[in-house]
Amino acid sequence: MRDCVLICWLLCVPFSLQAQSHVADMHLHYKWTQQDVTTPADAVAILEQENIVMGVVIGTPAALALDLQSLAPEKIVPIFSPYREGSDWHRWAYDDATVARARTALASGQYHGIGELHVIGGFTPAFEKAVVLKQLLALADEFDVPVMIHTELSRPDYMLAVCQQFPNTHILWAHSGAVLGPADVARIFERCGNVWGGLGARDPWRFVDNPLTAADGMLLPEWRALLLKYPDRFMVGSDPVWPVDQLDRWDEADSGWQELGRFWHYHRSWLAQLPDDVARKIRCENAVALFGRTVVMTCD
Fold first, then answer.
1. For residues 84 and 55, is the Cβ–Cβ distance under 8 A?
2. Bridge pairing between strands 76-79 and 23-31
3. Do 17 and 272 meet the contact criterion of CB atoms below 8 Å apart?
4. CB atoms within 10 A of CB 255
5. How many CB atoms lie within 10 A of CB 215?
6. Which of 40, 154, 180, 212 has its CA 20 to 30 A from that of 202?
């Protein structure tokens, strides 16, 4: 019932809110499991169709992001992913070679960040023992690029340890904690000025137990208050991974790029509920500013 109400509400949103505003997508994947249904040219065409003027792309393997950039260098910002195949999401933190590969990638000048790094309970070492993660955070500081970290833990303590121990590293918090609510996100923002919150996959189809909006599509009061309090600290991404019930299936291609319009339709709808200056920052300007130290991008 909740999905039906939301879909009906979204269908009533004026077209101008859906497609006219320029946006920066701070969380795009282009994976080996997506190539069969979405070519690099297809992906760039989808970005054009959705009026996405900047896209931060995570390739699996990393070089796939460069395939998109070669077709739209004015639009695509590749960041280095240590993942070479699907199962690397739970192995990277134990592989010492990860840091050397990241250094080579950043030194090439082709990549403008590191991530997405999954830190998920039961699969990642405790922060005190997370040697590879700490070295990557130090490396990002050295090259002055952001690190995108995906934490999926019941408390914000891990991210708090990360951002306080590495205060000079720019941290892009994928999904703003994923399973965490606005109070926990606020705790991180209050204590760490070096953390930006990504809102990719914070939609009615993923992380459904921690929504941004109510069944009628309206921003929940706690999230609205947080967005207004920290207008310079949030940004939005589509995170085009689909279906989400099983990542990197062997028998089915990832069709996430075909869902990208639906994801952005949703995000544009709640952004339209914010004051214009706040919405403009969150939908584009903050992402451009965060990555603008090493690559020239614009919201125009």
1. no
2. unpaired
3. yes
4. 16
5. 14
6. 40
Give Cα separations from 29 to 35, 44, 187, 241, 259 (angstroms): 11, 12, 28, 7, 12
For every residue of 225-241, DSSP letters joined together read HHHHH-TTSEE------
Is 244 a member of any domain? yes
pLDDT at 220 over 80: yes
Q: Is residue 18 part of a domain?
A: no
Q: What are phi and psi of 58, to 5 degrees?
A: -105, 115
295 pLDDT above the threshold of 50: yes
| Prediction pTM value | 0.92
Is residue 298 in some structural domain?
Answer: no
Number of domains making up the chain: 1
User: Given this model, what pLDDT does residue 205 score?
Assistant: 94
Distance in angstroms (rounded) separating the CA atoms of residues 98 and 124: 15
| Long-range pairs of 68-71 with CB within 8 A, sequence gap ≥ 24 | 68/30, 68/40, 68/43, 68/44, 69/110, 70/40, 71/40, 71/41, 71/44
Average pLDDT over residues 226-232: 98
Specify the 3-state DSSP secondary structure of 102: helix
- Average pLDDT rounded to a whole number, residues 243-251: 73
Three-state DSSP at 292 gives: coil
Is residue 14 one of the residues assigned to a domain? no
Here the CATH number for the domain that contains residue 199 is: 3.20.20.140
Q: Is residue 262 within 8 Å of residue 48, measured between CB atoms?
A: no
Is the pLDDT at 204 greater than 80? The verdict is yes
Whole-angstrom distance, CA of residue 126 vs CA of residue 81: 21
Separation of alpha carbons 275 and 12, rounded Å = 20
Could you list the residue range(s) of the whole structural domain that residue 213 is in? 2-9+23-291
Residue with tokens 């950039």: 69
